[in-house]
Write a structure and sequence with these properties.
Number of domains: 1
CATH superfamily: Response regulator
Radius of gyration: 16 Å
Number of strands: 5
Largest sheet: 5 strands, parallel
CATH architecture: 3-Layer(aba) Sandwich
Length: 146
């Protein structure tokens, strides 16, 4: 599996302790900076205080719907990647996840290799978005100077 080029700051949000811990250990061993939240409200507090590159969240969190969390993330930042996890997948929930602003959607149970691949893809996409924004800005400056 291709390793991340740069360490990402990742927030894992899931009410299942074992899954959260396994992802935290796995991603930490890959060199990622990982924080965890057991519920949506805790995630909102962390997101208020810190900037994350990627958020991995379950749809069903108990206190706050994962899709609502995605909408809150999206209202604050377009450059935070979001991966939705669910054990109750359906075409409708996948469509709703993407409409809410998620970058990807994965069904539980999943392999750690699959999570790594999905996060790599999101990181690459976000990197391209940042590069495009820089190039657009440079082009605009160039046009204004000529």
């Amino acid at each position: 599996m291709v390793q991340f080029k740069v360490s990402q700051k990742i927030l894992i949000v899931d009410d299942e302790n074992a899954l959260r811990r396994n992802l935290e250990i796995f991603l930490g061993e890959l060199g990622q900076r990982v924080r965890c939240a057991a519920c949506g409200e805790d995630a909102v507090k962390l997101l208020h205080d810190e900037q994350f590159d990627i958020v991995i969240t379950d749809i069903r969190l108990g206190d706050l719907d994962g899709l609502e969390l995605v909408r809150r993330i999206r209202s604050r930042s377009s450059l935070t990647g979001v991966l939705i996890m669910t054990a109750y997948g359906s075409p409708d929930s996948a469509i709703e996840a993407f409409r809410s602003g998620a970058h990807d959607y994965i069904l539980k149970p999943f392999s750690l290799d699959e999570i790594e691949l999905r996060i790599n893809n999101i990181a690459r996409y976000l990197d391209l978005q940042r590069q495009n924004a820089i190039l657009r800005e440079e082009l605009q400056c160039h046009r204004q100077n000529h």
